[in-house]
Amino acid sequence: MAGATTLDEELLAGLQQARKKKARNYCLIAKGPEVLKLIVQKKKIPAGVVQKAKAEVKGNNIIEGVVFGEGVSLTFEVLDSEPSIKAKKIKEFIAEKTDLTVKPEWKVVTAFRQVEEDEAEGPQAESAEVPPPPPDTSSSTAPVPPPPPQPTVQAPPVPPPPQQPTGQAPPVAPPPPQSSAPETAPPAPPPPPGTDNANLLNELVGKMNKLSAAIQSAAAANPARKADLIKPVAAFQAQVKAKDAAGAQESLREVAKVLKELTSGGTPPVAPPSPQAGAVPPAPPPPTGQQPPVPPPQAPTDKAQESESAEDEQEEQASRFRQDWAAARKNLRAAIDDVEAQLATFADALLKSNDPNMEWVAEQGLTQLLGGLRASATTIDKSAAKSPEKIAKFARPALAELEKRLASPQVKACDENKFGVKVTIRRTIEAALREMSETLDKAS
Predict the structure, then answer these.
(1) Taking the chain, what is the end-to-end CA distance rounded to the nearest angstrom?
(2) Which of 189, 228, 267, 321 could cross-link 388 (Cys pair, CB 3.0–4.6 Å)?
(3) C-alpha separations of 376 from 62, 225, 329, 396, 400 in Å
(4) Confidence at residue 65, expressed as pLDDT on a 0 to 100 scale
(5) Residue 285's CB: how many other CB atoms inside 10 A?
(6) How far, in Å, CA of 440 to CA of 437, rounded?
(7) 387 neighbors 398 (Cβ within 8 angstroms)
(8) Under DSSP, is residue 29 helix (H, G, I), strand (E, B) or coil?
(9) Per the confidence metrics, is the pTM higher than 0.70?
(10) Do strands 24-31 and 34-41 pair parallel, antiparallel, or not at all (unpaired)?
């Protein structure tokens, strides 16, 4: 197999490293559902390299992140939402380009895990921290600075003890003064940050990713406090990128603190008021041996039964609403995927026209159009809360934004194109939006 095809040696090397639990940067370029290019390497992939690769394969979708794995398993980390490209397509592309059999999967995370440097590259960074060696270089071990010479300290002459009166103990002479010279060698400088720092960053990223679903739910359910969550999450991502483990740890604590406030109601316990002058003292306890009077149990009233029944019915309605809303969100995602496939076919027709303007539309214009539609759909898809009223309050503005995009001249030009390609952006997505709107009407 390897002799019959030309393998992508750079991709093969990058994937082999990722399969050994080593996180690596990746860039995947696709057009519609098809994978056209995959770059995997340790160093950050420059934007110029990405754009050049995109132009070479004429792709219109760029996905970047971090990949890692073990054995045949490969996990591709992405931010925000899972791409529409199927894992099967990635598997087939890797098999074709490298002869490797792998099981890829997408994983949505809040922040990418740290891409560690190889051990072979560490000494250059460490050499700047090591003090210069002493003149004796015969030892093969790491040089240690010699301790400074100790000054000669002479003990002061001991004066003869004065004669003490009979019966009194002689006074204890004070200890001789200590030399101000240091008794030990100066402490060695701290070791440079290495694998311990990287391991801590990976551990922090893992903890933050576990909170991803809770962060999204809390932000959707508490729009007034959304900024309180987004700010430390953004700080965490920047600190991980800068390899600031201490700062990332502090930001993670802040996120956990805000989440705890939101999930527990955010109201601290109120201490009982201190007794004021002139206040009526509490009733004294009953005399010893006597039990306080117990009021007779009250039979449940009809109003209490009606209230309990109404609460049960309300909870049942809320449960049905959440099921219908989940189905509507799934149908919207499917509609966006259908539109993406239509635009991929349309882009091929534009590229065949050999018109520079049409080529720009295929490579840039359609990408921007699809990106805007998917961004609005993603905002709707993330709307989640326990109360149907809160879901409706969060989702309706996003629905209005997507409907506004569907009414744009760009969508109309695609749907009414002169290239004989069937494109039905508005009709395909509007059907899913009608279902969502009808579902939200049940929330009121």
Answers:
(1) 62
(2) 321
(3) 18, 21, 12, 11, 9
(4) 94
(5) 8
(6) 5
(7) no
(8) strand
(9) no
(10) antiparallel
Q: How far is CA 34 from CA 25, 60, 62, 352, in A?
A: 20, 11, 12, 18
Both tokens of residue 289?
Answer: 């041996």
Q: List pLDDT tens digits, range 187-240.
A: 544 545 455 777 788 888 888 888 888 888 888 888 888 888 888 888 888 888
Q: Which two tokens stand for residue 68?
A: 């890692």
Domain positions in the chain: 9-109, 197-263, 314-441
Give the tokens for residue 43.
């160093």
> Of 398, 361, 357, 358, whose CA–CA distance to 379 is shortest?
398
Structure tokens at 155: 């003990």
**What is the length of the chain?**
444
Say what percent of the chain tops pLDDT 90.
29
**Conformational region of residue 231, where left means phi above 0, alpha means psi within -120 to 50, and beta covers everything else:** alpha
- At 87, list the tokens: 């894992």
Buried b (16+ CB within 10 A) or exposed e, 404-441: ebbeeeebeebbeeeeeeebebbebbbebbebbbebbe
Whether the CB-CB separation of 251 and 207 falls below 8 Å is answered with no
Do the bridges between strand 34-41 and strand 73-79 make them parallel or antiparallel, or are there none, so unpaired? Answer: unpaired
- Run of H or E residues at 31: strand 24-31
**DSSP per position, 178-246:** PPSS-SSPPPPPPPPP-HHHHHHHHHHHHHHHHTHHHHHHHHHH-GGGHHHHHHHHHHHHHHHHTT-HH
Does the structure show a pLDDT above 50 at 327? yes
**In 3D, which of 43, 190, 198 has the Cα closest to residue 128?**
190
Q: How many Å is the Cα radius of gyration of the chain? A: 35
